[in-house]
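Newbie here. two chains, one complex. Structure please?
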Amino acid sequence: MNTPHQQQPSPRAVEQSSETTRLHYSPNVDICDAGREVTLVADLPGAKPEEIDIRYDDGILTLHAPVASRPLPGRMLRHEYGVGDYRRSFQLGEGFDPVQITAEARDGVLTIHVPRTAAAQPRKIAVTSA
Amino acid sequence: MHPLQATLRRGFARPLGELREELDRLWAPLTAAPPLHGWGSAERSSRFPALNLSETEDALIVEAELPGISSEQVEVTVHGDELQISGSRPHRRAPAEGETAVWHRQERGTGSFERSLSLPVSVDSTLVEAHLANGVLRVTCPKAAAAKPQKIRVTAS
């Protein structure tokens, strides 16, 4: 049994883009709604921070990150994952201020902060005694 | 041949490394630390991190995706022919005091991970280099002199 133990690459949830025939990986995310803002954290290993594209249009937040293939030199002995662009969209709904959206990337993880507009923020109503 | 006999034969013919990996796979869901699923669903990536491995004339190259892990949070060790990658990924940020947070998605795994790989050839552990960039770890393991292909000079008599 000298043949190397080979495995088929097991791509993450892959969706096919309607614009092109290229396959995209759907990144894993954490989404937390803390009232004044929604925080979205996405795993994008291999994506360069300056190439990550985030768009907000009509209540839909779309992130796209191109990832150039980085073939390992020589002969592949084991192939457990594939490499490709990341793309995923999220329906956020109304009440967000697109101008205030900020994002930072570090160690292959993208964090997007989507603040609510002042009018849409939850308010605590003080009850006064008569 | 008895079917059990056939199974046993196949089982024993397996290289030990492969058997060990099989055991690792069986153990992974039972051990205390939750497996870290950096990506993919639980069924698909039972072992974290997923690894790609290639071989050149001079070296073995191992690559793993470790998003959210800094160089201080990952440890790469080579002991004999065994490469081990271990570390931990920080837990999700807890909501601040008095803040009510609603989680809509929790797909990113957290916690400690450990993965061993039996290297197919001997490497020089003193020359192994590991580099982490944008959440991608690449480990270059130069082969031991004895494992490199030797060119034999043919002399004419």
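Moderator note: Confidence is low (pLDDT under 50) at residues 30-45 of chain B. Strands of chain B lie at 51-55, 59-65, 74-79, 82-89, 102-106, 111-118, 129-133, 136-142. Thread marked as resolved.
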